[in-house]
Amino acid sequence: MWAAGFFDGEGSTLIHVSDPVRGYLRLDVVVPQHGGALLPSVLTRFQAAVLGTGRIVGPNDDGIYRWESRSFGEGQATVALLWRYLGPVKRAQATTAIREFLAQYAPGKRKARPTRLRLPLHGVHLEPQPSTFSDDDTERIWAAGFLDAEGCFGVVRALPRKRGPTWYRIRASASQHGEVGLPAPVLMRLRAALDGMGRIECHGEPDDFKWVVEGEERIERVLARVGPWLGETKRLQAKEALARFRAQTRLKGDATRCVRGHVYTGVAMKGGRLRRICNQCERITDRRRRPAQGVPPRQFKNAARRYTF
Description:
elongated; Endonuclease I-creI; four-stranded antiparallel β-sheet; alpha+beta; 9 helices
């Protein structure tokens, strides 16, 4: 389930010409991941989830590692293991590639070569297989895998504030190509797995879409939904984003308190829309306005209530 979500985000099933002279085609099933100097743990986890098939190679000059299966037997076995939970786009891609590979061995074309099994270059530690899960758990595990592949937790610059430093919003997002005007099915599935949280918006090209959810409370709800299965890298990324967001100096109120921390008195229509009202802040503003207009200070029995400027 997790591996299917991860493959929906990063995996590909492709046809490659392995022998330019005789024209033999090779079935390549690959999952790339950036790791720099360290082997990404999600690749070893993926390899364990597909029962140790394939191998992990790399890094290349850009720090990219790849899990790959370059034989038909292993590639077909990997796709079969993931098929039940795989999304429609990756299913269609795998079906097309496998059919094209088998078509080269149609009667009268060429003789099939024996399948070669490759030993993994890195150690494989098989995870214990889980017991049965509910449909909801299945989708949550898939969502965790997809976020491990395509997800991002971070902070983004918000609107400028009149006072204090720039404010940053906390956000989780995941991008995927779909069709022009039609979001990728995996993004719709991701949002459904997360109780409908977030929005899907066009991002860049007309066929490029992004699922986005913002706000501390919603990020915590996302982590509550997928946290038990989310990889260490994404959990750390989310933790750092939350810490950075919470470290900011808040200069605006929330749903119950104003910018000064007062509990709102009520709501009223102002400027054509419903606004929250804080009587304490209005009194402070009024006391500041009076001396500017030359009005003498009021005689309060409580000296703390007098304005002195």
